[in-house]
Amino acid sequence: MYRLPTFLTRLPSLSLLLSACTALFLTACSGRRNDGSLTIFGVLYLIVAIAAVISLIKQDWSIGKKIIWGLIIWFFPFIGSIIYFMFSGRK
């Protein structure tokens, strides 16, 4: 009985995580070689971006603020994650 409201409160965070993971795997970054393997820059980008998205999901913010920070992380691949960690005011 109480599982549905709990799931519905987590649904926006889950959709944000799903879209962020999709963005990480579908965006073309310069961290790949011609054969498709990741360079050191690509691996660092993935680690920092995944850490930023996980930190973003754990925050106790409104959905609007999470979406804005998620877009910053997504549209500015490496710099966006660094900006998030420096200026987001995380707890």
Report what the structure shows.
It is a single chain. 13% of the residues are buried. The chain has a domain at 37-91. It contains four helices and no strands. 74% of the residues lie in helices and 0% in strands. It is globular, with a radius of gyration of 15 Å. It is an all-alpha fold and 91 residues long. Helix 1 (3-26) runs parallel beside helix 3. The protein starts with a helix and ends with a helix.
- How large is the share of residues in beta strands? under 5%
Distance between the termini: 32 Å
Radius of gyration: 15 Å
Structural class: mainly alpha
How many distinct beta strands? 0
Tally of contiguous helical segments: 4
Mind describing the biggest β-sheet? none
- Spans of at least 5 consecutive residues whose pLDDT stays below 50 are none
Q: Give the proportion of residues in helices.
A: over 70%
Mean pLDDT: 75
The general outline is globular
Helix and strand run: HHHH
Membrane topology: Multi-pass membrane protein
Organism: Hymenobacter saemangeumensis
Subcellular location: Cell membrane
Protein name: Cardiolipin synthase N-terminal domain-containing protein
Ordered list of secondary-structure elements with their pairings:
Blueprint: H1 3-26, H2 40-58, H3 63-75, H4 77-87
